[in-house]
Sequence to fold (537 residues):
Amino acid sequence: MNLAEVQRGFSDWLTDTTGEDGKPAIASQASAGFAVYRNNYRAQLIGCLEASYPQVARWIGADAFREAAIHHIGIHPPRSWTLDQYGVDFPDTVFALYPRSPDLRELAWIECALAEAFVATDSTPLTTESLANVNWDAATLTLTPSLRMHEATTNADDLWFALDAEATVPEGEMLDQPGGFVVWRKGFRSQLKRVDATDYAALLALRNDGRFAAWCDVLVERLAEERGIARAGTLLAEWIGAGIVVDVEIENQGSS
Amino acid sequence: MRTPPPSFSGYGLGLRKEHYRDFLDTDVPVDFVEVISENFMVDGGQPRDILRRIREKHPVALHGVSLSIGSSDGLDMAYLRRLKSLADDVQPLFVSDHLSWSRIAGFNSHDLLPLPYTEEALALVCRNIETAQDVLGRAMLFENPSSYVAFDGATMSEWDFLAEMSQRTGCGLLLDVNNIYVSASNHGFDAHAFLRGIPANRVRQVHLAGHTQGPGLLIDTHDKPVCDDVWALYATAMSVLGPVATMIERDDDIRPLPELLAELDTARSIGTRSADHREVA
Fold:
């Protein structure tokens, strides 16, 4: 048996959650040592999910979380070299296990997004001076690489803040009007905010097409001209201050 | 042919997030720190900033767990490029990983799985080491792992494998004394034979850690102080190796920094005394 066969046999055995064979088929005899590797494998991944989703774990309880984690490990063996990537699809597993709890799925998405934003590529905030004399008609806005967005249908952000503060946790509930969750990093701290449907659509539009003029058109279309332009100005100031918009590029002029 | 990186003799600790504040705000009496490479192979944010600030105060060794040098389907080049970027940024004392494998056919176990000590594995590991060293532009160190199973068909001892691997590739060795102790106990070999079989002139770093008694096996848990038997083995190792960078690894049940510094003082005392009485071959 060559090395590749040994390694495939070992990994097949590690990831096999259906049987409880004490050894891989490649081994001639069982030994307590194989159990150490299987235990290490599972414990490492459960620990990774616990560290990545602490508020989900608090919300559903340690036993239910462990059950969900074991289920996830069974269907999603890790593929990346970094454990930071393991669990990015855990929100889908949570939803599959708790299809009647969209708040839980959105809570899991929030935790995943906060962790991703924490180590996303750095960006430098815009200064007020850099915005002087910008020809906005020709301007393209750049968003922070740490930005993560997701439709909000529940008050999962309220749950997250309460769980994080170890305060009384409100009931999970559906929102009257869906909006969006926005996660990004300012400085070294990940940020979470829920925005209404209009602002969410505006941010999505800006991510899809960074041209300021096109973005204003989207807001004008939704809010009519006067309110749309006013809203664009307000949002732009807010997003620059928050570190969501991090660059203004002028056609043929480069970055500000 | 590469040669192992320059020697550095001193005493250090594995940097863990529980102690970031201590290292950033105070003058911690260590000669170097070792960090887990993968924790800092990120695009940006606080981890890289913390590492930059600590690097301004201390020499840093990069210690990886995901290179998977024994993978039969080769190395992950994206991983290697990230490691190179980090190494170029940090300018570390050493870049190390383990003599093990964790990745095959896209699956990554995130565990240090054992290799059969065969000619086929040796040739493959050497090929992978040469690739890694070429990409990084520097010689690496490889650590002897703790292991819990041995494979049928092994044709050489672990120490012979390490010695030949180092000879063929020019890599250095990171000798984990606790791992020698754990594996010797689990597989019934003589830990002193391991020490005698290692080319002392290629060892650049020593790890010390604690382990746990499992059902019929010792398990390398890094959650306890170094035990007396491992201290004794360390004394023997240092009498063979002479002065070499030594550090304590603690990865679970992380203790307050003064406790780890006291343990490091023990290492310093034993290491200095033993290295002064070095056996000359």
In short: The mean pLDDT of chain B is 96. The radius of gyration of chain B is 18 Å. Chain B is about 40% helix and 20% strand. The longest helix of chain B spans residues 257-276.
